[in-house]
């Protein structure tokens, strides 16, 4: 069995991590809504979506959601 290595997603440091096996997880953090309510988001593994035969993840930073291909996330972190 291969050990899973986790690294920060480039551009989303402190928010998301990617593993050497291609899994992406959201890290535990505190979020503030536009109505000033504060909530804690627990760490969890994201489920990938599929489009045109490619797996992708929707990553959010500063209230902007971006669709990022799974193989590109792994490549930028480990190559």
Helix content: 10-25%
Major β-sheet strand ordering: 1-2-3-6
User: What's the multimeric state?
Assistant: single chain
- What does the overall shape look like? globular
Average pLDDT score:
91
Question: What is this structure's SSE topology?
Answer:
Elements: E1 6-8, E2 16-19, E3 24-26, E4 29-32, E5 38-41, E6 44-45, E7 49-51, E8 54-61, E9 64-69, H1 70-78
Describe the protein in words.
It is built from 1 helix and 9 strands. With 79 residues, it is mainly β. The chain has a 4-stranded antiparallel β-sheet with strand order 1-2-3-6, covered by helices on one side. The chain has a 3-stranded antiparallel β-sheet with strand order 7-8-9. It has a two-stranded antiparallel ribbon with strand order 4-5. A hairpin with a 7-residue loop joins strand 1 (6-8) and strand 2.
């Amino acid at each position: 069995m291969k050990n899973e290595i986790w690294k920060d997603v480039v551009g989303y440091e402190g928010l998301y991590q990617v593993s050497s096996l291609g899994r992406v997880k959201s890290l535990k953090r505190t979020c503030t809504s536009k109505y000033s309510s504060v909530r804690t988001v627990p760490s969890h593994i994201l489920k990938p979506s599929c489009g045109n035969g490619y797996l992708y993840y929707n990553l959010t930073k500063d209230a902007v959601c971006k669709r990022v291909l799974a193989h590109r996330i792994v490549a930028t972190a480990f190559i």
